[in-house]
Amino acid sequence: MADTPSRRFSWTTIAPIVAIVALAATWGRVPGTAVVILVAVLLGASVTAAVHHAEVVAHRVGEPFGSILLAVAVTIIEVGLIVTLMASGGESASTLGRDTVFAAVMITCNGILGLSIYLSSRRFGFSHFNAEGTGGALATVVTLAGTCLVLPSFTLGEPGPRFTGAQLAFAAVASLALYAMFIVNQTKRHRDFFLPVTAEGTLVDEDDHADPPTTQTALLSLGLLLVSLVSVVGLAKVESHAIEDAVAAVGFPESFVGVVIALLVLAPETLAAVRAARRDRVQTSLNLALGSAMASIGLTIPALALASIWLEGPLELGLGATQMVLLAMTVIAAVLTVVPGRATRLQGGVHLVLLAAFVFLAINP
After folding, report:
1. Do 294 and 140 contact (CB within 8 A), yes or no?
2. Taking every annotated instance into account, which residue ranges of this chain make up the domain Sodium/calcium exchanger membrane region (predicted)?
3. Cα 121 to Cα 8, 114, 330, distances in angstroms
4. How many degrees, rounded to 5, is the angle at CA 263 between CA 343 and CA 18?
5. Which domains does the chain have, with CATH numbers?
6. What is the rounded CA–CA span in Å between residue 250 and residue 260?
7. Close Cβ partners of 269 (under 8 Å, ≥ 6 residues apart)
8. N or C, where is the chain less crowded by C-beta within 10 Å?
9. Angle at CA 112, nearest 5°, toward 150 and 105?
10. How far apart are CA 120 and CA 227, in angstroms?
11. pLDDT band (50, 70, 90) for residue 2
12. Measured between alpha carbons, how far is 81 from 77 in angstroms, rounded to an integer?
């Protein structure tokens, strides 16, 4: 793939540069309505550009490394948005991390997973994937979610759904250890568990894809990815009050800010998963879905634990009763979807209904 002038000067190249200039111009100021709208557009463009450049680099390094890179890039964006919004304060700051991480789990394990299976099954009859690799990823997500989002509601060390300092440190270390073990399993000993498979269960020949980008193109995208990530985090800080005001203006609960953040950072990755599903590469879609859920918990919680040292106010991670029920239904449905190694439109529809229930109850708790 040649690095042509048209590629070098595409919107995904220009957007991060314009966004970083806008960040320098607006940092430390209170922007007016027109500037807030422009910043919002640049923020969305930067998120999309970041994931695009991550996808270019991912194509260069191949699967499953590509899915890992995409998940980590999205999680860096997510952590940046959460920390910048929490630093701005407000009544919802203490629960913003929990709300965003839980929303990311619901969107990935129900939205991305369900949509990918539904579209693939509708086009090819069945969605085929490796139950061993996908099952291991799901087990890791369930363990992370239970440890970091459910247990704080039942521990006795602190009032409310909070960990003590020691408990939070343990959860952070355990999360990093689980994530690291999974990455080693995915990229070293059992890499073939996470490659696309055919209906007969054989690995798909990845050589039938388009030629990977050149090293020069991949390095350019890597640099633009870093610029995009800085732009996203900075512009989110500029836009933080506008996001909270918009949620309040439409009458939604303050906790819906977390849903907005998760939807923002995961929308481009959803498109990448959908593209893979339409090519009958559902395993890649599931790698993206469960990998993002895993990174959202396994990397975000340790980052929030570290940030809590200087952030004011408590860090509430424990889910409420309604959220726990939604998580339990998601886990049961996901297990029944993954175990056979293939799925139909019904399983995809079940997960999409669970996502709809989550969004509806987030608006009308």
Report:
1. yes
2. 33-187, 221-363
3. 37, 10, 20
4. 130
5. 5-363 (1.20.1420.30)
6. 13
7. 51, 70, 71, 74, 112, 288, 292
8. C
9. 15
10. 34
11. very low
12. 6
DSSP symbols for 176-205: HHHHHHHHHIIIIITGGGGS-B-TTSPBP-
Bridge partners (DSSP) of residue 316 are 162
Q: Is 7 exposed, middle or buried (0-12, 13-18, 19+ CB in 10 A)?
A: middle
Token pair belonging to 186:
């995915």
Distance CA 198, CA 283 (A): 10
- For residue 255, CA distances in Å to 131, 234, 259, 319, 341 come to 35, 22, 7, 12, 36
Specify the 3-state DSSP secondary structure of 27. Answer: coil
- Looking up tokens 């979807």, which residue turns up? 337
Closest by alpha carbon to 52, among 186, 209, 220?
220
What are the tokens at 243?
Answer: 């996001």
CA neighbours within 13 Å on the CB side: how many for 297?
32
Closest CA to 144 of 333, 293, 334: 293
Tokens 């799901």 belong to which residue?
Answer: 138
Residues 60 and 218: beta-carbon distance below 8 Å: yes
| C-alpha to C-alpha distance for 109 and 134, rounded to whole angstroms | 12
Buried-exposed string 296-324: b where 16+ CB fall within 10 A, e elsewhere? bbbbbbbbbbebbeebeebbbbbbeeebb
Residues in CB range of 25: below 8 A, 6 or more apart: none
Residue 40 in tokens: 């919002």
E strand segments, the chain = 127-128, 342-343
pLDDT tens digit sequence for 40-83: 888 888 878 877 887 788 777 766 676 677 677 777 777 777 77
Give 3-state DSSP helix, strand, coil % of the chain, rounded to 5: 75, 0, 20
Residue type, 151: L
Q: What is the pLDDT of residues 254-267, one digit of tens each?
A: 888 888 878 877 87
